[in-house]
Automatic annotation (TrEMBL):
Protein name, per record: DUF624 domain-containing protein
Signal peptide coordinates: none
Keywords in alphabetical order: Membrane, Transmembrane, Transmembrane helix
One Pfam family, short name: DUF624
Length: 208
């Protein structure tokens, strides 16, 4: 019985990890409430998740707030720029979908390619900001390079994101379930899962 509650027990370590992710998810949601700060909150989320994955066992609150404060300005600028870019793409889709010609059909395909590229960059850029010290311009370049250079990882993360978005559109029950799980631990679990890929990628650029 004592071994069951021993912290070195794999079961206890798993339970502890889940608890950490629940707490981390709560911090992410709270710091994302103003919406405009969601970029900084995302960078802090990935910062802590990578530490958890590497077994550094950080103090969740201290490390989350540290990363949030340090990356607030840069991550907020990036977040706003991405929101504007997605908004412009949304307007383009609205205009093109109202037309029914061969030319607009080609433009629609091109827009989907641009959307996929932009979404791929958005998957990488906040983890990049949280892990490396570089300018905003360089962060975009690094995120784009990694998204292309590690295409299999990018494809898997895009597929996971696509499945989650699809589940939200299947039925109201599934949508409600996704929202509930997201409110408990969904965001941190997804970030932790993605950090499995980011850990392998980032190690290639870290000083030996």
């Amino acid at each position: 019985m004592n071994q069951l509650f021993n912290y070195d027990n794999p079961i206890m370590q798993f339970i502890s990890k889940i608890f950490d992710l629940i707490i981390l998810n709560l911090f992410f949601l709270l710091f994302s409430i103003p919406i405009v700060t969601m970029g900084a909150s995302l960078s802090a989320l990935y910062y802590v998740c990578l530490k958890l994955l590497r077994g550094e066992e950080p103090y969740i609150w201290q490390n989350f707030f540290k990363a949030f404060r340090q990356n607030l300005k840069q991550a907020t600028v990036v977040w706003v720029l991405l929101l504007l870019a997605f908004a412009l793409l949304g307007m383009d889709f609205y205009i093109i979908n109202s037309q029914d010609t061969a030319l607009f059909a080609v433009l629609r395909v091109l827009l989907w390619v641009v959307l996929g590229a932009l979404f791929s960059i958005s998957l990488y850029i906040f983890p990049v900001i949280s892990h490396f010290i570089c300018s905003t311009k360089q962060s975009f370049k690094n995120a784009a390079y990694m998204a292309i250079g590690f295409l299999p990882y990018t494809a898997v993360m895009l597929a996971i994101s696509g499945v989650l978005l699809y589940l939200c559109t299947v039925s109201s029950k599934l949508f409600a379930m996704v929202i509930i799980i997201s409110g408990i631990c969904g965001h941190s679990v997804i970030a932790f899962t993605f950090c499995i890929f980011f850990d392998r990628i980032f190690r290639k650029y870290e000083p030996k």
